[in-house]
């Protein structure tokens, strides 16, 4: 159960259907984070494939490691169905063509279409700009266990 939730957390943090190119890089990256969660809710495989770099890796709160294909599979066809997602307290740090986005999130969803689940967590995402597009290369999150 925790592993499924962990995989969902990861996917929630990384999906984006439209690649915003206006505004500052900080705004663009925060928009990508928001679009990413919308894509996970909608189970948009194409958006996830575009956002994740081919060498993408995710580490969940239990220490499990997921690659791009595994994470997309979990987010789009797993038993967990996300209903809502919220991002807060996002901060972006730029290092040339690399960026680190940190923040806090919360979600609610259904497990096995019957049991409701919710969680709060903190996350760190690393993006690299390749061919003019930001791609997520790494994601890590830590469940807060009810703490804000």
Structure write-up:
With 148 residues, this protein is an alpha+beta fold. It has a single domain, classed as Nuclear Transport Factor 2, Chain: A. The protein contains four helices and six strands; from the N terminus they run H-H-H-E-E-H-E-E-E-E. It has a six-stranded mixed beta sheet. It starts with a helix and ends in a 5-residue tail after the last strand.
Short description:
By secondary structure, the protein is of the alpha+beta class.
Helix and strand topology:
Layout: H1 2-12, H2 25-42, H3 45-51, E1 52-59, E2 65-67, H4 68-77, E3 80-95, E4 98-111, E5 115-130, E6 133-143
Parallel strand pairs: 1-6
Antiparallel strand pairs: 1-2, 3-4, 4-5, 5-6
Helix pairs in contact: 1-4, 2-3
Q: How many domain regions?
A: 1
Number of helices: 4
Number of strand elements: 6
Tell me which CATH architecture applies here. Roll
Q: Helical amount among residues, as a percent range?
A: 25-40%
The order of strands across the largest sheet is 2-1-6-5-4-3
The CATH topology comes to Nuclear Transport Factor 2, Chain: A
């Amino acid at each position: 159960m925790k592993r499924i939730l962990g995989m969902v957390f990861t996917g929630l943090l990384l999906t984006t259907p439209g690649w915003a190119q206006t505004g500052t890089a900080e705004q663009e990256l925060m928009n990508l984070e928001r679009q990413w969660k919308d894509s996970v809710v909608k189970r948009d495989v194409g958006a996830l494939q575009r956002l994740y770099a081919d060498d993408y890796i995710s580490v969940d709160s239990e220490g499990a490691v997921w690659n791009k294909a595994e994470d997309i599979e979990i987010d789009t066809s797993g038993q967990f169905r996300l209903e809502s997602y919220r991002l807060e307290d996002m901060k972006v740090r730029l290092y040339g063509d690399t960026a680190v986005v940190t923040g806090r999130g919360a979600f609610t969803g259904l497990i096995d279409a019957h049991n409701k689940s919710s969680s709060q967590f903190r996350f760190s995402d690393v993006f690299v700009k390749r061919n003019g597009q930001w791609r997520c290369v790494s994601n890590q999150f830590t469940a807060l266990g009810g703490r804000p």
